[in-house]
Amino acid sequence: xxxxxxxxxxxxxxxxxxxxxxxxxxxxxxxxxxxxxxxxxxxxxxxxxxxxxxxxxxxxxxxxxxxxxxxxxxxxxxxxxxxxxxxxxxxxxxxxxxxxxxxxxxxxxxxxxxxxxxxxxxxxxxxxxxxxxxxxxxxxxxxxxxxxxxxxxxxxxxxxxxxxxxxxxxxxxxxxxxxxxxxxxxxxxxxxxxxxxxxxxxxxxxxxxxxxxxxxxxxxxxxxxxxxxxxxxxxxxxxxxxxxxxxxxxxxxxxxxxxxxxxxxxxxxxxxxxxxxxxxxxxxxxxxxxxxxxx
Length: 295
Fold this sequence. Notes:
The chain folds into two domains: 1-146, HUPs (Rossmann fold), CATH 3.40.50.620; 148-295, HUPs (Rossmann fold). The protein is 41% helix and 19% strand. The radius of gyration is 21 Å and the shape is globular. By secondary structure, it is an alpha/beta fold. It has a ten-stranded mixed β-sheet with strand order 3-2-1-4-5-10-9-6-7-8, with helices on both faces.
């Protein structure tokens, strides 16, 4: 991406996102250094709601609108960043419009909770809507994530070996090249049912699993080669996709996990969770969700 917009908020969920942008700014070189800007969308829905009721007008006149935050920490981490303050009714719509206004632009936002927080709701309303709707790449970062310059992790791309992940593998390959980081491609195989485990000899089960993993690794290599992408490492593991990817992230500590988006409809989301949103909500590291291109 040539331009990244960092989403800012008064609750300081943006701190991990700013550090991710700093990592990119520090590691990229030459024409690989992206333009960075920051956007703080201030919504005044509470005032707007009360203004429709005449009985509240006296109280509203005494309520001063808060001044926009200064975001001095952002300016210190990214001295050249341009911070814009915009007032709008719908935050996510304004951020969508900003990302769509220029070509090759993506968004970097913070999520609601820290890496190991056990809260049930882990993505805020704005983040959830952007994950569902944004037509550009979106990076979601835990607020407490910090880049370790002396221990940079690889770029990991999760692929289901289907068309929905083609944009993701190209995006991940470009990121890895821009940041001079190794690229690891991961495919999670369906886990074996419990009754198969119980009915199969352990040695036979292990041999069958090794064969499946070896075949899957070869499928990953062929899939990448078909799309002119080279990875430094390919990994195939059986099990639940989200659980295994999170375990993989805990162990490998990647700088970024990249996954595709199938752009599920509202009806599809009722019966099928979005892998991208689930991973963005739970992973201990930044997660990039890359929608498919139109072509």
